[in-house]
Amino acid sequence: MKRKAFQNLKKASVSATVAVIALSGFGATATYASAEEDPMSLYLDAQKNTNEVQWERYKPYTETSYELQDRLLEEAYESNSTIQAGLDVNSDMIHQMVPKLSMYEKALSKAKIETSSKLDPSTNEMFADMDLYLDRYRIGQGSFYQNEEKTSVKITNLYNKYFTVDNDDFGNLMKMSGANAEMPATPDGQMVTTSPEMTKIPNVVEYNQSTFTMDELKQIGQDYLAILEEQVKEADFSLEENASFEGESYKKVSLQIDEENAQEMIKSLLEELKDDERIWDTVMTQMEMQGVPTEGQEEMMMADLNKAIEKVDKLQLQNGINIEAYIKDNLVAHEEITFSILNPETNQTVSIEMVGNYKENGDDYQASGDISISSEAANTDVVLSYTEDGEEVSNGLNVDNTFRLKVDAPETQSNLNVGLDLTSEYTEKSSNVAFDVILKGEALQGQMIPDISGHVNTTLNKESADSYSQDMEFGLDLAMTTPQTGDMNGSLTFDVQQDVHFTDELTFPEVTEGENAVDMTNASDEEMDEIGKKVQRNMKRYADVFKSVFANTLFDEQI
To answer: Which residues form a coiled coil (predicted)?
Structure first.
């Protein structure tokens, strides 16, 4: 069962990778100096320019954010943050069903979490300290420290020492704790044993560094697009001057990639993917960091890729891949990419059409894209689409976006229309985004689904060469009306304030077994039993103090 799940994951990952590359492949190739001389150069140069225009439009509003993200992956830093939340539920019915809801709302509004952290990629060390406050009282404190060898955790209210374990010895600790104990016998008399999936504790810094920076992502994209550029040169190009589209005149470039060249293109992409150590190193690291068993997985994935490469020649692309692009002012205003894949066993096809649009009108612009997939065998149409309507204003950029997934399956009555609507306001230091979640269709009929909306507002300031401050507010709003409950609505908000300072002058705590730490693996049963009793006593003492301090003053009722 687990192997099948991995195979599905691998197939999906490979398919997604090839699809993403193919969709973007014709849009960022190298500039040709003689763009006017032939249709291929005209098309490739216009595609590159269209992408650059859209990228450059967002650059002033994303530059600092991308800079901070990349530095957080590569440099040593210390950070302080404050997290607060609010809950507001407006429904008499829900308050009757949950009598203590008002108490929870009040408690959450008075709660605050303060954190401080340090991270050093050069030593793979990380320290984090968290304090929980309620109505100005500190009611909880915890610390986390990790280096390449050990992970240590301390919850001060329960025990005044760190609990530490060797990162590579986590599996043995789970066995000692009974997580790998034998299960009762099955009906055929066999004993069943279970083994923990996570045998070692992942290093947080290594996991953080396994994420690609923006520069690395750009380089990967350029490498794969270079392959597509070579393949597309073999296509059959043609040019029509003064072609009409929506009442305007354009240069129309048509290209046809025959089945053999299309197969070679896919094969080249898969070969590059198979040999790309950057991607495989990242995939394996992230699997390991998430506790997924990695032994033999890379070999299995490579075997699946080799099988896929061998089967490419059997891929039947009826009429190859056909592309039409309408170009004006070195911009691709409209583009259609169509092809059909034939299943020789059923003699049925899957037809795919990709349509893109881009238009500028002074300070305004509109962009859209659709991917339509129609399957004869399943009698199902799937459409992925987005629209973007933007306006450059005096201090920034205002953008409206829609994202949709539509499924039309009349035979199974499983029509679906889900997506997201966004309204965004960008400045060089802030972004305010309001969203609405769209959930419609026959597949969702009869289900109690609330209206879901919210906002994400962010302000980011670069205070100095090595210091940044960031405020983020996330809000989620739910509303629903039913005959049984009437009108119900509620909101949940989180406010996060964070300061980041990049520095190599970091100090980390000394965690020493026998002094301020307990080795969980080597501690005796008697020692762990005594520690357990102390923790229980501290928990009871803590609960008693909490009740005496807050029962009346904070909640206005007995807990």
So the answer is: 252-279
